Amino acid sequence: METRTIVLAEVVKKQRLAAYAEQVAGKIAEMVQNNRLPKIVALMHQMYPVLAGDRIASAIRVLKVTQDTQELEETVQGGTPQERLVRYGSRWELPCWIAKAIIYDLRKGIDLDNPSREDLRESAVFRVAETYQCPRETVEAFINALPGIPEKRDEEDIIVPSQEKAIERLHPLVKERWEKNGKRSYGLEPYEILSETLKAYPDKESWMADSWKQREEKVPELLAYNIHCRLDLENDLLKLYNN
After folding, report:
1. Which residue, 27, 95, 109, is CA-closest to 62?
2. H or E segment and range at residue 170
């Protein structure tokens, strides 16, 4: 999916990540209820069977207790076996690493039960094996040799426009401003937002007639701005309209 501006591509990525994050708790609750770790964990163990199966299986007990990745990071970096035993029912670090990796993968939108090769290459679960001295070459060879695995997940790619294409799309007034000031010292994104806003709202009357929600619907690039940036943008627009 090619987006019309660089800043909109970033907005779409953030929206996807937010949607993935909202689903994490429900997907982990389903794992815990079924007492079953996802397929991606079994694939990691198939690739690197030196890891103890009972320790891997204990990751589900960790997920029952917590989904706080900061807590899990602290327990693998500085926690003691006794503390882990009391807290999670397992004294080993490995299940904590796997539990944390599962959460990270879910936040990235990786399909843990039907992963693509791209998912496996990006997977934090698969990097757990590397943490335990599995060579990177072994990981790549295993992923490439797996039968019946699609190369990519079934999701439209977000193709970010080149800067050259983005500049070509700028509103003439904004392009003139970019040529004069922006390209020497500032990023392109604020100019894109101003440009798309001017395209949607060519005059003060149309701008003032809409609420912020309506403006965001017409110009989704506005979602990249907080309230202070929006006030600056509005002041900038009003100056342009009044000239």
Report:
1. 95
2. none
Any long-range contacts for 28-31 (C-beta under 8 Å, 24+ apart)? 28/63, 28/67, 28/102, 28/103, 28/106, 31/60, 31/63, 31/102
In whole angstroms, what is the distance from residue 97 CA to residue 77 CA? Answer: 10
C-alpha to C-alpha distance for 233 and 178, rounded to whole angstroms: 15
- For residues 161 and 2, is the Cβ–Cβ distance under 8 A? yes
- Residues 50-78: tens digit of each pLDDT: 999 999 999 999 999 999 999 999 999 88
Task: Look up residue 3 and give its DSSP letter.
Answer: -
CA distances from 45 to 3, 99, 230 (A): 39, 14, 50
- Tokens matching residue 108: 């990235």
Please say whether the beta carbons of 25 and 67 come within 8 A.
yes
Q: What is the pLDDT of residues 205-218, one digit of tens each?
A: 999 999 999 999 99
